[in-house]
Amino acid sequence: xxxxxxxxxxxxxxxxxxxxxxxxxxxxxxxxxxxxxxxxxxxxxxxxxxxxxxxxxxxxxxxxxxxxxxxxxxxxxxxxxxxxxxxxxxxxxxxxxxxxxxxxxxxxxxxxxxxxxxxxxxxxxxxxxxxxxxxxxxxxxxxxxxxxxxxxxxxxxxxxxxxxx
Amino acid sequence: xxxxxxxxxxxxxxxxxxxxxxxxxxxxxxxxxxxxxxxxxxxxxxxxxxxxxxxxxxxxxxxxxxxxxxxxxxxxxxxxxxxxxxxxxxxxxxxxxxxxxxxxxxxxxxxxxxxxxxxxxxxxxxxxxxxxxxxxxxxxxxxxxxxxxxxxxxxxxxxxxxxxxxxxxxxxxxxxxxxxxxxxxxxxxxxxxxxxxxxxxxxxxxxxxxxxxxxxxxxxxxxxxxxxxxxxxxxxxxxxxxxxxxxxxxxxxxxxxxxxxxxxxxxxxxxxxxxxxxxxxxxxxxxxxxxxxxxxxxxxxxxxxxxxxxxxxxxxxxxxxxxxxxxxxxxxxxxxxxxxxxxxxxxxxxxxxxxxxxxxxxxxxxxxxxxxxxxxxxxxxxxxxxxxxxxxxxxxxxxxxxxxxxxxxxxxxxxxxxxxxxxxxxxxxxxxxxxxxxxxxxxxxxxxxxxxxxxxxxxxxxxxxxxxxxxxxxxxxxxxxxxxxxxxxxxxxxxxxxxxxxxxxxxxxxxxxxxxxxxxxxxxxxxxxxxxxxxxxxxxxxxxxxxxxxxxxxxxxxxxxxxxxxxxxxxxxxxxxxxxxxxxxxxxxxxxxxxxxxxxxxxxxxxxxxxxxxxxxxxxxxxxxxxxxxxxxxxxxxxxxxxxxxxxxxxxxxxxxxxxxxxxxxxxxxxxxxxxxxxxxxxxxxxxxxxxxxxxxxxxxxxxxxxxxxxxxxxxxxxxxxxxxxxxxxxxxxxxxxxxxxxxxxxxxxxxxxxxxxxxxxxxxxxxxxxxxxxxxxxxxxxxxxxxxxxxxxxxx
Lengths: 165, 797
Hints:
The complex is a heterodimer of chains A (165) and B (797).
Chain A: E1 2-7, E2 10-15, H1 22-29, E3 48-51, E4 54-57, E5 70-72, H2 85-92, H3 102-115, H4 121-127, H5 139-150
Parallel strand pairs in A: 1-5
Antiparallel strand pairs in A: 1-2, 3-4, 3-5
Helix pairs in contact in A: 2-5
Chain B: E1 3-4, H1 30-33, E2 50-56, E3 62-68, H2 70-73, E4 78-83, H3 84-89, E5 94-96, E6 102-104, E7 110-111, E8 117-123, H4 126-133, E9 137-142, E10 171-178, H5 180-189, E11 192-203, E12 212-218, E13 223-228, H6 233-244, E14 251-254, H7 270-282, E15 286-289, H8 292-298, E16 301-313, E17 319-329, E18 358-366, E19 373-374, H9 383-401, H10 405-412, E20 421-422, E21 428-429, H11 434-445, H12 447-459, E22 463-472, E23 484-485, E24 488-489, E25 492-498, E26 504-508, H13 517-529, E27 536-539, H14 557-584, E28 591-594, E29 597-600, E30 603-609, H15 610-618, E31 631-637, E32 646-655, E33 662-672, H16 679-699, E34 730-735, H17 751-767, H18 782-789
Helix pairs in contact in B: 9-17, 13-14, 14-15, 16-17
């Protein structure tokens, strides 16, 4: 079947099997491998993307269900050469190690901050509680999201498109 | 001597620090990860690539009567269906494990655990490959399964390994350490003896990225390239050469970015071999990625030790001896990846951080109808089990003596002047200063205040517990005279090339799975030769590009490869000094090193930088007599001993008396890993391990029913901590350098996984003291805690 959607603002159309999962559509059909796959049961959240502005687990959404809708992935966070503050925050506060859960965490964090620009630690923990990180122990992820909250993109000095070295 | 440093402010983020050497520095690998531009195995797409899926056994123990693959073969998108019989015809049905046992690549005679590999399909896409699995018809003759490890050696137990010549029972190996007679004598005369049955249940590392590979055999060159989730690419290459018969120089193993390992990616799994066979047969690239259930039911598990611990002491609380009897469940094949002479890993350090008169351990390892593995989940080769045993039994002693557990530990520590300390089981602890670490942890926790609060709460019937654990690890395997895996010595290579413009490439044999090696190793080299970390590219995970070495596990990267990186940099610096002497027209002895340059002693105005020297080394001008051009070196580092990091952990829990739910309120972790290279990365390693500890202590367990069905085959059933189950970690540190490591560093990657489970369990048991509970086994789920409160705690297995 033919499926059309916008991904990070660009219209895409592909012929796919009706059963194809959105995560596989993004990774295998579009070659956008920033979105990862980690379990079969919607528990780990490493596949989180936005569907019409809301975080969803793309292993539990059929590509066909996303037809006609807007998808945003980790590849769509950076604007021009300016990183999203959540991306900068994760670098600054060591919010990642192996990097596998990171794209999903970033998408959830961005959604949280859009809804609630100054979240408490408890609110952040609640927001990312549908996602598993095996490396960081979460404290640095919480710090990273707080860093982003304290350095919003529309501040006078935008977060630099940093390089760690 | 150790130093106690001021506690760092965990919230402090200093963006300006960019040290030329050790210090907090942001990670060089992060810019790609935060953009979703990491390169993991499953991200790889090659032209013409096919997809492999594995048919697994639905039962734990059965004879294979017949396999009919004709319907699968007829599927229009299927390229091949391969069974054990097909592999057997090529002599490929069995492969060696890393413990000199053998494991079936595909079952030929019997299946021996649920989830075992029976056949595979190669198809044009991953969905079709899965579809075709459904079309394979296997007839099984079901046999009784051995699931209770305590009954594995019973005379009437079904024989699992009838593939082994002359095998008559399920015995795997026996192992013993220490002096039994001396230990028994001390026990016989002791004032107090406390015994406890302590189980460390089977758990699973469950990295976020499952295991998988892409095999690409190029027929014209006869070269196999394998992109794979491997923590040990060089060791894997050698095993593939031995198994497949391909010459080793025609095998290139590439481990790209790895989504977490924790020991799960040390073994060689049948799926890798199947993908290699498929690419050899079909001549096209073949991808195999297991799904989450396959990862949980078939790949390397951890722990599964049933321990009887006993401790002897004076009535004043002087610990005299510890002894233990262990039944070790190794599953259907012995897939442990420990050094050959150490079948029980480094469990021999069960004497802990205490100065004993005697110690003894005896172990019986058996086969059961469970998945193979054993050494995984950041265990430092079974030190998780050893530390859990000693720290639990010491708490049982404190309970019996009605002594404060902190006081009891302080009273029995090995003292600073006893290092290097040879334990009663023969381990030579390189350095340690335990009391300052313990006191710092007590101070950070506000221990006395916590005890007061606990006393008040007990009056009101509230359940609050304070748990202490003090651990000593033994990491950095290891000296090649003692330690090898499949005959491969555990030394590690390192190569450093400084280019003409003073930029450098460091190639190392270990393999990052998220530990930040690209940053840490650049800092190690920067500290030694003064080239900024940003100018040093670290290459790992490619056997064609890096020197030989055994990889990353057992917290060995910094103790072994880190030492190799420092020493190769010093070798380059020595050469640079000779070249500098020619440039400055003075003797080598008249030069002194100021980070980044050589200068004439007494005349700092006459100096050359490492960058100047690099250009001269590659330039047209003369070099001193006997000096070759270029500025590079290669070494292989053979550690003289392990390193012995240690730490003091304090956990505070609250238990809901109505639901028995345990909440970890606070966790204080003081670690000493010797010289600290990048404190930010160290803290991250510790946070991760502490979270593992919460998982194991309270949530995680791979369990089975009596018929051998795995009950923990998904993240719905195998529970892993989320951000809601863990507290905000409080970390501190002391610094006691290793005397034999070139920069004094010790490993740290597994310290917290080792040290946190006993701290948490000790806290829960402490909270349950009003119920007369002295011990309860992990995982301390609400139902198990509830049972303990009712006086009916039972072992989980």
